[in-house]
Design brief:
Elements lengths: L6 H14 L3 H6 L2 H8 L6 H16 L8 H5 L6 H12 L8 H10 L9 H14 L5 H15 L17 H4 L17 E11 L3 E6 L10 E2 L2 E2 L2 H9 L7 E2 L3 E4 L4 E11 L12 E5 L10 H9 L8
Parallel strand pairs: 1-7
Antiparallel strand pairs: 1-4, 2-3, 2-8, 5-7, 6-7
């Protein structure tokens, strides 16, 4: 959960998640919808899907015991070199260098690494530094310390250099150029996209939702159908036409790399008049059950605004 997300945001999600799934067996046995429902709002949903898949692998292939070899840990869905190294260093005290975002920032400043941290050449250089610095003893303490140093002291903005235990060794601090490192990527114009979302409701308190593809934005979550032409979509997918539509106020949802303008268009329908294609991804959901499935945060916000279901986690 802490990948790409701050601690303060994670804590309530973590508490709910571990209460519902107290061990790897409970997580592996859960339906993906249950997992995504508790993850909804955290974003980067591939993390939840990967963790669910990993739990199944650990239960079925490793007899519920987390693998111990670096290569086996890295083979698990969603676990790369740095995450695998952190797991083994912290849990078993094995000597493995890590290089998460916080560590990259610490090393970039300490050694005045000139390259942009996202480039392959710079990453390779930082890995070499990380390997060289990782000690042979107390690896777990060192690993936790350097992560916390970046998270608490050597922060992206307003770093607390006066409180830093390695300020005397930090080249950026010594030369008073801390704010220059790590070198940022070139700024790009933030793009804006628009999308129309179809809100079909029945008199019997049901809403039509479509499961998103497993990859991409909101992967695996249930969402209002996204259309280019609502009239054409309803005719093709539901075999119906001549509905009375209502345009709800559009609103902006910010992703990491772009802004999405969501344009909801709604209609009241009779379920019996709608003919769903043989597609399990398209399904009617009762309003009172909306808090038990994974919904994207902006769709949850829309439902709350329109008083549709109880969607507050």
């Amino acid at each position: 959960m802490l990948q790409q997300t701050q601690v303060a945001t994670v804590i309530p999600y973590y508490s709910r998640f571990t209460e519902r799934f107290p061990d790897v067996g409970a997580l592996a046995a859960a339906d993906l919808d249950q997992v995504l429902a508790l993850w909804a709002g955290l974003g980067y949903y591939a993390r939840a899907r990967n963790m669910h898949r990993t739990a199944g692998i650990i239960v079925n292939q490793y007899d519920r015991k987390f693998p111990q070899a670096m290569e086996e840990v890295m083979s698990l869905p969603g676990i790369g070199r740095s995450t695998a190294a952190a797991i083994l260093a912290l849990s078993r005290g094995e000597r493995h260098a890590i290089l998460d975002g916080n560590v990259k920032r610490v090393l970039s400043r300490c050694f005045r690494v000139e390259g942009i941290t996202g480039s392959a050449a710079t990453i390779k250089h930082l890995w070499k530094i990380a390997e060289r610095l990782t000690p042979d003893t107390r690896v777990d303490d060192y690993t936790q310390a350097i992560m916390d140093l970046g998270a608490v002291i050597c922060t992206r903005s307003k770093p607390m250099c006066d409180a830093c235990p390695v300020a005397g060794l930090c080249e950026a601090h010594i030369h008073q150029v801390v704010s220059r490192y790590p070198l940022p990527r070139a700024k790009r114009t933030r793009p804006k996209r628009c999308a129309e979302f179809l809100l079909l409701l029945t008199q019997s308190e049901e809403v039509l939702l479509e499961r998103r593809p497993p990859t991409g934005i909101w992967g695996g979550l249930w969402c209002l159908p996204q259309t280019d032409d609502s009239v054409e979509w309803i005719e093709q997918r539901l075999g119906h036409r001549d509905l009375q539509f209502e345009n709800h106020p559009p609103f902006i949802h910010q992703f990491t790399h772009f802004d999405l303008e969501i344009r909801p268009i709604g209609a009241m329908v009779e379920r019996e008049a709608m003919h769903l294609a043989d597609d399990d991804a398209l399904r009617w959901h009762n309003r009172e059950d909306l808090d038990t499935i994974g919904l994207p945060a902006p769709i949850r916000k829309l439902f709350d605004t329109l008083n549709i279901g109880n969607t507050t986690n």
